[in-house]
Amino acid sequence: MQYPKTRHTLMSLAVASACAAATQGYAQETPRVAAAGEDQPVQSIVVTGLRQSLASSMNLKRNSDGVVDGIVAEDIGKFPDTNLAESLQRISGVSIDRSIGEGSKITVRGVGPDFNLVLLNGRQMPTSNLGDLNGRAFDFANLASEAISQLQVYKTSRAENATGGIGATINVMTAKPLDRPGLHASIGAKGVYDTSNDTLPKDVQASKSLTPEVSGIYSNTFANNTFGIALTGSYQERNLGYNNAAVSNGWKGPFRGDENNWGTIPQGPSADCPQCTITNRPTGSQLYSVPQNLNYNFNGVKRQRTNAQLTLQYKPVDTLVTTLDYTYSENKIQTKRNDISAWFNFGPSSSAWTQGSPSSPLMYKEFVSNSDIAMGAADFATKTQNKSLGFNAVWKPTNTLRLELDAHHSTAESGADSPFGSSNTLGTASFSRGNTTADFSHDFPVLSIDGADFVGKPQQVTGSVFTNSYMRGEVEQFQTKGAWKVLEASELKFGLNYTKVDNRSAFSNNQRDTWGGATKPSDYPSSLWHQDTLRQYFDKIDGSNSSALFNQFYTFNFNQVRQAAAAASGLPNMYLPKNYFDNDARTEEKSKALYLQFNTDWDTVLPIHTAFGVRYEKTDVVSTALVPAATKITWVSQNEFPITFGDPTFTTLTGRYHNLLPSFDSDVDLTPNQKLRFSYGETIGRPRWDQIQGGTTLNSLVRTDGGTGSQGNPALKPVKSKNFDLSYEWYYGEQNFVSLGLFKKNLENYAGQSRIIATPFNLHTPVGGALWNEAIAKSCANTDTTCIRNYIFTNHPTAPGVTPPGVNGDVNGSIVGQPSDPVAQFQITSFSNQKKASLNGAEINLQHMFGNSGFGISTNYTYVHSGLRYDNNAVGEQFALVGLSNSYNVVGIFENKKWTGRLAYNWRGEFLSSTFDGAGPNPQYVEPYGQLDLSISYNYNDKLSFQFEGINLTDEIQRVHSRTKQQLESVTQAGPRYMIGARYKF
């Protein structure tokens, strides 16, 4: 279906523009031309099936100003995917990040999640996500799809849209009763079977893998369609699991082959270590890294998601429509984890290395005795709630003037939903680890341990961390809009906007750094530990069948062991989270904006439609942060120097910026079915909350080479992007089209992450102090921290700050930094506007329905390129674009009166997800990932239908590496998910 646009001559436009203010009479509108300020009438299409949904999405693209893609629901209450992010990934240029096996955040045209703006019915939504405590990315996992009628993805800028979306602005539209008069109601139920729950240890596994989903929608109009009500609701449960092998604390380095620093590898066999053999040792300027630890973890997750929306509409007269709506969502997640890990001490070792630079260990072996075989557990829960109350009024006093008022108050709040906090770790260990080897030659990293003795040296509780995190986002927005139609084919849009965004992110850690042993093995009955093997939990990953794998470990119930540790230590409060926050950052952004946009058609040889717009926006930032003041550093084990914190203090900083953002869209009708588009626009993406929060926060654990921390900069300007788009579209059938788009983005004021060396709070460290230096002078190597500690305890047991093992209840002994010791240096992460970047790419789309056969195909491919990439052969902090990747989709469909089927394959190429891992400035690359999904629906009659869905049918794994493929960051195995359900329409 096509909606032609009225044209006029250049002369008539000039006359009309000059006389616009005085004009009182207007030409009669034809019924197919939109009234002033209205969107194109694509939304009036009655959607009845998957093919019609694709046709409606095609017409949305065809009739919009600029480059717009979208997805339209097949029917009221029936969106094509169970997850909105998974629907969005079908759109060219859109890629998703997955969390617990489903889509959560989106990257558009190579621009990461923080710089894509999400609107709900045209309103800016707050964000809240404990997984990324300070980000702006919207988590689509919080929204069910049943109440959604349409997704609109604006890839080019519009003056009327709120700022914040450099990659795209995504408008999520919900059903409104007056848009579809009459009674519409349905109810649906599903059973969800997640196979990933079946491949977990019993201590973390949910009792059932089959869980329910129920949803319903009711929409009706009354009083001659002047009043309408719509009510939607859904409740979903899902029990799942995933097993992960990881170098969870990152890679130490990179080092140069000719360096001799703590953590480097030896030259080869020596008198002190005749067994140290090095194969293909990196030399000279070759870079290499060594693993800090190797961890296998097993995670059981339960999720309950509740969504509801109430919409009331009243149309007292034909020219006035008012809407009041309330949207609520709640996402509750409970997580249980067990793990086993080995930490490397960077002492005597053997290793084998890859060729070239950077070089990676194919095998890394350390020679140790009576070290720890660490086995930990976690048991925590979180809850996220989103609430939005909005009012909208649209008044059309004349056929040529449309005025709109919109106001809303929306919140997003996340926090702990467990007495044990929002995350936690309870460490245990058997101190019987002998020589330890990590083999990185396959996709799965193989850990081998000699001499383990769980009977002679049973487990005991070591350290623990209980974290309480909280995040709240709040948006108050007031918008007025207007559109004035000038003669037949011109329109002036205008508006004012006020937005206040508040963000609060807070957390506290209750950490006991007794990793060398907090209690005795005898404090724990053997029945607390449950023996298991791990190979079967990674059977889909190449290398897990290795005979060298250390295949034995123990799981345990978190709370049972926590209670035993609390009783044995006599410190019950150390095994619970704090009931207050040590760190509390509160940031307020107030933005005022106005915009003008002029749309017109030109009656030239090739008809042209243009839209000129400009938006001016001014933003004030106030950031107040509560951060703990550090008081001392204590050396408690080989390479662990925890900080003691005192009372927290508040600091307040401010910032201000303004932007003038022009936009221009044009489309040329080459033929009635072919379009050529060109767009230019300037957009901004606001900094992350952690980039602009005040205060300096130190990480609680210091190493021999110093500590780390972070601080924000409220004066940061937003990233500004100049965007160019050129596209060709050919609509060669009612449901068929092909398009090719080219785009380029020039970004400036990018806040690249960097680090500075500082000495906050002037904390003294024992490293390099008089006692440390004396131990080295007597016989200890400067890397042998065990030797140094033992020397100090033996020869200076009563020195200031020294507490030998067993004294005053200190199991391992401790050494506190003294005023005569050196001041500790910290690498502080901060941000500044000093980076520029550019990216360009291409998109190709094809949608083709094969006549009346019922078969069709929808496919697209996106290519994205930027010269600003991470240099794997460079040392130190780097600025590089994250999220940059190619992607493609292939969706095959079949539909007739009884059956609807869709087989969809989505692939995303390798991309850089972060420039820092747990150890420091090292890249993290997500390897290529493809997923196959299937959905089938059978219409029993006009009212009753049955559905089957399969997600990740081929049981794909996800893998992340650092500078080389062998430098594993993590590899994850989960499993397919199946759903069967029924839906009844009233």
From TrEMBL:
Residues 425-953 form the TonB-dependent receptor-like beta-barrel domain. InterPro entries: Beta-barrel_TonB (IPR000531), Beta-barrel_TonB_sf (IPR036942), Plug_dom (IPR012910), Plug_dom_sf (IPR037066), TonB_rcpt_bac (IPR010104). The keyword Transferase does not apply. Its main location: membrane. Residues 1-27 form the signal peptide. The keyword Signal applies. Keywords: Cell outer membrane, Membrane, Receptor, Signal, TonB box. It is found in: Cell outer membrane. Pfam families: Plug, TonB_dep_Rec_b-barrel. PROSITE patterns: PROKAR_LIPOPROTEIN. PANTHER family: PLUG DOMAIN-CONTAINING PROTEIN, TONB-DEPENDENT RECEPTOR-LIKE BETA-BARREL DOMAIN-CONTAINING PROTEIN. Belongs to the TonB-dependent receptor family. This is TonB-dependent receptor. It comes from Duganella callida. The lineage of its organism: Bacteria, Pseudomonadati, Pseudomonadota, Betaproteobacteria, Burkholderiales.
